[in-house]
Amino acid sequence: MSICLRLALLFTVIFAQTALAADNWVTWDPSTDHVVSHTDKAAAYPRARRLSNGDILLGYHHGGGEAGEYGTYVTLRRSRDGGKTWVETADIERPEEPRFWGFSNVDFMETGGPAGEMVFVTAARGKAPADSKNAFLSECETSELRLRFSSDYGATWGEPASVAAGRGRVWEPSLVRLATGELEIYYACEAPDLRRNGRLDQRIEVVRSQDRGRTWTQPVEVAQRPGVRNGMPAAIALASGKVACAQEMVGQKTSPLISVTLNGKRVNEHEPKHPYDFGAAPALLRTPDDRVILGFHSGYQKPPAPPGAPVPWMFTNVWLLRGNAEAEDFGPGTQPWPTLKNHEGIFFPSLFMKDEETVVVLGSYISQPGDRDSTRTTIRWIEGKLNSAARKQP
Length: 394
Known about the structure:
By secondary structure, the protein is mainly beta.
């Protein structure tokens, strides 16, 4: 055996052992894998949070596009038994003619105010009038982020309010609450000034509130690269008091990008290095030991979509990588669903902590067992147990 071949085998073994060690931060439990959406009609883009009263609130959009690439209705569901069963299923938003085609993407959280007070945000997709001379500009003028507030842990919601209205087609809001009580919303914006040389770029913006969401600052740009669609932001508060905002970077070979902000202003940004091709629709989670988990969907080592698939890029799978407390230095990845079949895919992941030792991964699951008309999209849930080193020590 040549020296070069021996070295190659040695490095292969070392990498495999390193990947195994890195993956040991979590143990996935396949018995917890189940569908949590109320419909298989284009259900996608899940978000969930455990509330201070012990309930788990789940949201997603459905009914839009061919397989859930955008939404028409936004639904919330509640679980009082740790995600086993779901009640109080309700469409919080639905099309509003003539102004809005529908609503896409969703996020929500407790405001940190009185017990049960919550804020809900979704993307209101503006509709151009039939006689509009420029449909894109008309949609930019009517689109907004739709807010609602609740005082009873999301059992009921108040009248709608808006933010970031009229500046572009806005998408994918991500809520953050800082230790100071400040709320921030990171979102993607397709603005008229980003139409360049026949293409439409996209930027990430942020709005901030010091009064539990009643008033908001003017939008500020967080990240935008010429020729790139910065999108699908996922933001979390770091232990340092800064915010990490991961985003996919359509138009360049590497993704995702993580922008770090302080007081709503970008202080640095970096691209996590990983071998899993293009990391799309990123998700972030801060675990009890303050380290950060990065998730995304990717076509890495995944067979091509079935023939005639309505949205081929959805036939991907989810990877999770563990980094440090500054959302840097991510190690090798792990897959919650490692055995997907050729006609299956999981995309648009999100993460939350069910308790101090249990991480939940939600994914938009697509299946096409037959022809194009057999395609169905649901929300899947799977749990993993953090090892002792990843839990917060007393």
